[in-house]
Amino acid sequence: MPLLAGSLLELPLGLIAGQGRRRHRLVLAGGVVFAAAMVAVAASSSFVALLTALVLFFPASGAFVSLTQSALMDADPARQQQRMAAWNLAGSAGAVAGPLLLAAVLTAGASWRAGYLLLAAAAGVALAGSAAWGPGRTAPASGPDDDTDADQRPPIRQVLGALRQGDAARWVVLLEVSDLLLDVLTGFVGLYLVDVVHASPAQAAFGVAVRLGAGLAGDAAFVVISRRVAGPAVLRLTAAAAAVLYPAFLLVPGLAAKLIILAVVSAATACWYPVIQAGLYGSLPGRSGIAVFLSSAAGLAGAAGPLAAGFVAQRAGLGWALAGLAVAPVAILALLPRRRPQSQGRGEPGGAAGGAA
Questions:
Q1: Is the pTM of this model over 0.85?
Q2: Alpha-carbon Rg of the chain, whole angstroms?
Q3: Under 8 Å between Cβ of 306 and 318
Q4: CATH number of the domain at 155-205+214-335, please?
Q5: Which residues neighbour 315 within 8 Å (Cβ) at sequence distance 6 or greater?
Q6: pLDDT per residue over 141-177, tens digit each?
Q7: Domain coordinates of the chain in residue numbers?
């Protein structure tokens, strides 16, 4: 329910946000609801209250996080790939820090509710920083204060026009296909290690830690690599590597060997999201709101990925379900756009969404 209902509420944000001060006001409003939703989760005393708070969290996150991302992309179109790399590194650091925060809270004798209150406080600090220094506080230099986009067509026609361009549609599909070896695999890897490999729960927890830690290392490495190499070249190389390594992870016997290969796969695929997301922004120069809308719509459709994997696992076993995720690197190699976006400047291998070289 939070994913479906919340994502539907989030969907129009990109179309109504505009740019400059109007978008910044939506970011700040989303930050307020974002922090309030976490406080509501911590204070919830019934299922309905908890569900309501989690449903509100999705559109709040869309306004606070997704619109901030679009503002960062608009602020420096020639460095979208590098900015997405740094953005993704921050997200991976949060993914690793979250379990550590929970462990610290529980060790201190507090409950999980205290963890949410600490996160709400951190969101408040981020909100204050966004109000003072965040991108988009002023209207674009080339545009009026009302933040209207140059394209005056109805929003739905703008979306359809963007999809007809071809490259934007490819990036949207790649965004969700790549997630099969990103969030979907992360969600199932612990269960796979226990259910198929017959590891202990402690060993499976260590396997998840290996997955997250290697991904964080890969994100940090890509921050450096993105300054020197075009993203699509890295994407093509890592997809080819994953097409070999991921089946090896499933087939090789022994827990130690599997964890070693899992670490390599996790580090190699870490660049996928920033390159593909930057590619989507680069294919729609000056229309970051459309990119946000398409990303949200793709995420809503992509919710079928974990559901499909779970259905196959129920019918044929988790090993076969995870084998189906091997389609991701093959699809990336087949669908990756070949031409550069027009917004990419000369001499910028990672420029304007390093995106579609």
A1: no
A2: 20
A3: no
A4: 1.20.1250.20
A5: none
A6: 444 444 444 555 656 777 777 777 768 888 988 998 9
A7: 2-133, 155-205+214-335
